[in-house]
Design a protein that fits this description.
- The complex is a heterodimer of chains A (about 250) and B (about 280).
- Chain A is α/β, with parallel strands linked by helices and about 250 residues long.
- Chain A has a domain of about 80 residues: 3-Layer(aba) Sandwich (Rossmann fold).
- In chain A, strands 5-6-7-3-8-9 form a six-stranded mixed β-sheet, with helices on both faces. Chain A has a three-stranded antiparallel β-sheet with strand order 2-1-4, covered by helices on one side.
- The longest helix of chain A has 16 residues.
- Chain B has about 280 residues and is an all-alpha fold.
- In chain B, helix 2 packs across helix 11.
- The longest helix of chain B is centred in the N-terminal third of the chain and has 26 residues.
- Chain B is globular, with a radius of gyration of 19 Å.
- Classes of the chains: A alpha/beta (about 250), B mainly alpha (about 280).
- The interface between A and B is medium-sized, with 29 and 27 residues.
Chain lengths: ~250, ~280
């Protein structure tokens, strides 16, 4: 039965993964994990530990040098366009770009509708729903240059939701946002997972790791630990404290 | 002299009619393509491609080929070269442009200095000679402009997404590398189309200034393009009229008018922001 097969396919499966940058430098080695649909995996580690590298490789942006990294059983590049929603850190783009929030969120529909097909009523509804999910319907027509950091982050996530992806890859969405926005993001991410989507998310902050994540993957250019959140935190009690405050490495 | 007379008088001459059509085409095209130049911070590239095309023009002159062909080959080659060096070499975009465009421009000057009888009409390409636009030039200008315009419409979504967020556009299945190269080629074609009207030295201004003015007044790319096109068309046609009546170089007059528009837009934009 096809449904049985679908259930058995991991959302993301990494085996002896080694990722290299474009210039050939190794960014990450020895990574092994399986993420199933409906789970949120926190990817943690100090700056330069390979968190972004892992997310980029999963999004198909970086080359897998050895081992395997499969998303729903395929190479990321072989998936249907729009299957992966990669949400970069907000500093990755120029927010002076002439566009409204709705323009940005609408881009999420581009992979599905292609070059020339008009936006259907359904496309417009999905954009509205995505804006609603991040509580930004009221800001839809606002130029993106006027958004706060937290609003920029939510606009990016709305674009990802509008894309109707099979998996979400979030690069430090909770960094640099205020407490209220963090609370909203937490509920949003949990809701995505409850809807059956797999989520991989990098973070510095482990203070509320048990609320955010089902699993944790600890990186330091290689894999330090991987497993259910409770197990990882129990095995490494100093982890949440040291990362939360950014000093004395575990 | 009535207003109507002032407006119609230049059209008594065929070469003026051709000049006005060429100016309008160039004004529209540069100001629309220029929006991508401005939002993607490529201002320096326009200058680079234009200067590099000079070598192509000199080679075409030496070989008795059409200037357009020489300029187009050199401009497209330089545009692709800049794209390639930036992607593959370990240098930043402005460095790649700096190396390639000065090299190509120097080649042009070197070849020109070898000429026994110094060619005056090569100078037309440095400063533009819109009054010398032939019927064939005009046909080429309008055709190339139409090709660029059609490409911009067909690739609207790819260009928009790649301009705002190239990394996520790539993960969404948009061939961003190819789109970048296509944009560079479209930019090269736009510059070629504009060389005879405004000249190598000033074409970059027409690519940047109307779009930069529009950016002060608008907050979405489609409206920015529409306003930029309006400013570009106004400056091209208005500048040509002005140059006709004050007997000044047409390319320079067009660019100066655009510069005035930019400062006016800057003032209006500031006032609107303060009022909001």
């Amino acid at each position: 039965m096809t449904t049985a097969v679908a259930v058995n396919i991991a959302a993301v499966a990494a085996r002896d993964l080694e990722v290299a940058y474009d210039d050939g430098r190794v960014g990450l080695t020895g990574v092994n994990f399986t993420l199933t649909p409906g789970q949120v995996m926190g990817v943690i580690g100090p700056n330069g530990s390979g968190k972004s590298t892992l997310l980029k490789a999963t999004a198909g942006l970086l080359r897998v040098r050895s081992g395997t990294l499969l998303v729903f059983g395929k190479q990321p590049a072989d998936l249907e366009p729009g299957s992966i929603a990669y949400v970069p850190q907000i500093e990755a783009v120029d927010w002076h770009f002439p566009a409204t929030v709705r323009d940005i969120v609408s881009m999420g529909r581009f992979p599905k509708i292609g070059r020339l097909r008009r936006f259907s009523a359904r496309d417009r509804r999905l954009v509205d729903e995505a804006l609603g999910a991040v509580e930004m319907l009221g800001l839809a027509e606002r130029p993106i240059g006027q958004l706060s950091g937290g609003q920029q982050q939510r606009a990016f996530i709305a674009r990802a939701i509008a894309q109707e992806p099979a998996i979400y890859l979030l690069d430090e969405p909770a960094t640099g946002v205020d407490a209220a926005t963090e609370e909203k993001l937490l509920h949003l991410v949990r809701a995505l997972a409850d809807g059956g989507k797999p989520v991989m998310m990098s973070t510095h902050d482990l203070e509320r790791a048990r609320e955010w994540f089902d699993r944790l993957l600890v990186l330091d250019t290689h894999q330090v630990l991987e497993g259910p959140t409770d197990d990882v935190l129990t095995a490494h009690p100093g982890l949440s404290h040291s990362h939360a405050h950014g000093h004395h490495k575990p | 002299m009535t207003i109507i007379h002032v407006l119609v008088a230049p059209f008594a001459y065929d070469f003026m009619v051709r000049a006005f059509i060429a100016a309008l085409t160039v004004g529209l095209l540069c100001s629309v393509v220029g929006c991508y130049v401005v939002v993607r911070k490529l201002s320096f590239i326009g200058d680079g491609i234009a200067h590099a095309s000079f070598a192509g023009i000199v080679v075409a002159y030496l070989r008795h080929m059409d200037y357009y062909v020489g300029a187009a080959i050199m401009a497209v080659a330089t545009a692709l070269g800049i794209g390639f060096v930036t992607r593959r070499g370990n240098v930043s975009l402005d460095t790649a442009i700096g190396v390639l465009f000065t090299g190509a421009f120097a080649l042009g000057v070197f070849l020109m200095s070898q000429l026994k009888n110094y060619a005056v009409d090569l100078q037309d390409y440095l400063f533009g000679n819109i009054l010398g636009v032939s019927q064939l030039d005009l046909t080429l200008t309008v055709t190339l402009a139409a090709v660029v315009a059609v490409a911009l419409v067909l690739l609207w979504r790819d260009l928009l997404y790649t301009s705002f967020d190239p990394v996520v556009a790539q993960t969404s299945g948009i061939p961003t590398e190819r789109i970048d190269y296509i944009l560079l080629v479209l930019l090269a074609l736009t510059i070629i189309v504009s060389l005879e009207s405004v000249g190598i030295i000033l074409v970059a201004a027409l690519l940047v200034t109307p779009a930069a003015a529009a950016a002060q007044l608008t907050q979405r790319l489609p409206t920015m393009m529409a306003v930029s096109a309006g400013i570009g068309a106004f400056c091209a046609v208005g500048g040509l009229y002005l140059s006709y009546y004050v007997n000044a170089a047409s390319g320079a007059t067009i660019v100066l008018l655009a510069t005035c528009c930019f400062f006016a837009a800057l003032g209006i934009g500031q006032r609107v922001k303060r009022a909001a």
